[in-house]
UniProtKB/TrEMBL annotation:
Function: Catalyzes the initial reaction in the xylose utilization pathway by reducing D-xylose into xylitol. Xylose is a major component of hemicelluloses such as xylan. Most fungi utilize D-xylose via three enzymatic reactions, xylose reductase (XR), xylitol dehydrogenase (XDH), and xylulokinase, to form xylulose 5-phosphate, which enters pentose phosphate pathway.
Protein known as: D-xylose reductase [NAD(P)H]
UniProt organism field: Aspergillus avenaceus
Pathway: Carbohydrate metabolism; D-xylose degradation
Molecular functions per Gene Ontology: D-xylose reductase (NADPH) activity
Length: 319
């Protein structure tokens, strides 16, 4: 089963359901991508910071060699890390990431966080992480406009077909849209019933950006990171509202949560090692929740954010 697509403001079609590569282990990454392609996935969402782009590229190369898919049928996403926000750094790091993937262009290249950190030479440490050479967080003075102008040059040079942003607020989107020659095609944010961010989603969609939800299952992805809020929060899969809807529609709780997002026009990027769940996560567009049920799920919102640098002990107050 293939995912339906969403038309981006850049003119390209993006699969609505993709496979996220955050926390995918290096030793299993190539195989996971290969099997995800066999299951029908065409969008793969990676990043410099995930540290597995070389392995991801090997999985894709194997699938292409075996005739499972062609490059043009895939939609590859990666992200610009914080230490490369200065204008002259953007092109070279994008080219390095393309080389790691073994491809000629990204379908979508995203500014990972709206925070510029001091440059770290990839030859010194890669991925760079949050800390500078001193072991402390060191900020750069690069403004977002400088970074975005360099991102636009990636499109001009054919290194990226579309460009976007992640973890931006509505105010930062307003800022980018004032000077953007090439508008962001997508906004990627943490989005689940505990953190709905309704105003931000509405504003981005009104401005023609496709919103991609990450961490659609709420606290689940953060338990192993020992994020206190995730440990304290109740699992969404066990919430009575989600469980009752799963029973009503003969779907899994995961499918209910993903349909809650996709039915409202968002894209999603879940991942799984399990072949059955891989297929199930693709089956989240061919059936509908009732509007009242969408509201019931949204009513679980309590502003509970899990992916926050502050929660990892780093004073980067971007939210």
């Amino acid at each position: 089963m293939a995912s339906p697509t969403i038309k981006l403001n850049s003119g390209y079609d993006m699969p609505q359901v993709g496979f996220g590569l955050w926390k995918v282990n290096n030793d299993t990454c190539a195989d996971q991508i290969y099997h995800a392609i066999k299951a029908g996935y065409r969008l793969f969402d990676g990043a410099c910071d995930y540290g597995n782009e070389v392995e991801a590229g090997k999985g894709i190369a194997r699938a292409i060699t075996d005739g499972l898919v062609t490059r043009s049928e895939l939609f590859i996403v990666s992200k610009l890390w914080n230490t490369f926000h200065e204008g002259p750094r953007v092109g070279p790091i994008c080219q390095k990431q393309l080389s790691d993937w073994g491809i000629d262009y990204f379908d979508l290249y995203i500014v990972h966080f709206p925070v510029a950190l001091k440059y770290v030479d990839p030859e010194t440490r890669y991925p760079p992480g949050w800390s500078g050479e001193s072991g402390q967080i060191e900020f750069s003075n690069a403004p977002i406009q400088e970074t975005w102008t360099a991102m636009e040059k990636l499109v001009d040079g054919g290194l990226a077909r579309s460009i976007g942003v992640s973890n931006f607020s509505a105010q930062l989107l307003m800022d980018v849209l004032r000077y953007a020659r090439i508008r962001p095609a997508t906004l990627q944010i943490e989005h689940h019933p505990y953190l709905v961010q309704g105003r931000l989603v509405e504003y981005a969609q009104r401005e023609g950006l496709v919103v991609t939800a990450y961490s659609s299952f709420g606290p689940l992805s953060f338990l192993e990171l020992d994020v206190k809020q995730a440990v304290a929060a109740g699992p969404l899969f066990e919430h009575p509202v989600v469980k009752s809807l799963a029973a009503k529609y003969a779907k899994t709780p995961a499918q209910v949560l993903l349909r809650w997002a996709t039915q409202r026009g968002l894209a999603v990027i879940p991942k799984s090692n399990d072949p059955t769940r891989l297929r199930q996560n693709l089956e989240v567009t061919g059936w509908d929740l009732e509007q009242g049920e969408i509201g019931e799920i949204a009513a679980l919102d309590c502003g509970l954010r899990f992916n926050d640098p502050i929660g990892y002990g780093m004073y980067v107050p971007i939210f």
